[in-house]
């Protein structure tokens, strides 16, 4: 099964930790669902998928 090209993270603190661990941040865009929030767009990989299991699933889109 192929993984999606991008993973969307909605928590700024989690995004900062991921960048610090070397994951590739591609873009930051306004959230369409929550007008006062940002969405952090990461290049997805198997390593990122594995890392996200360490975080609450409410901090990213599956």
Q: Output the helix-strand order.
A: EHEEH
Shape: globular
Uncertain segments of ≥5 residues (pLDDT<50)? none
- Rounded mean pLDDT is 92
Distance between the termini: 15 Å
Largest sheet, order of strands side by side?
Answer: 1-3-2
Topology, number of strands:
3
Structural class: alpha+beta
Largest sheet: 3 strands, antiparallel
Q: Percent of residues in beta strands?
A: 25-35%
Number of helices: 2
Report the C-alpha radius of gyration, rounded: 11 Å
Helix content: 25-40%
Structure overview:
The protein has helices at 12-20, 46-52, and strands at 6-9, 25-30, 38-43. By secondary structure, the chain is an alpha+beta fold. Helices cover 26% and strands 26% of the residues. The radius of gyration is 11 Å and the shape is globular. Strand 2 (25-30) and strand 3 form a beta hairpin.
In brief:
Helix content is 26%, strand content 26%. It has two helices and three strands; from the N terminus they run βαββα. Strand 2 and strand 3 form a beta hairpin.
What would the keywords be for this entry?
62 residues, alpha+beta, 2 helices
Q: What is the secondary structure topology, with strand pairs?
A:
Blueprint: E1 6-9, H1 12-20, E2 25-30, E3 38-43, H2 46-52
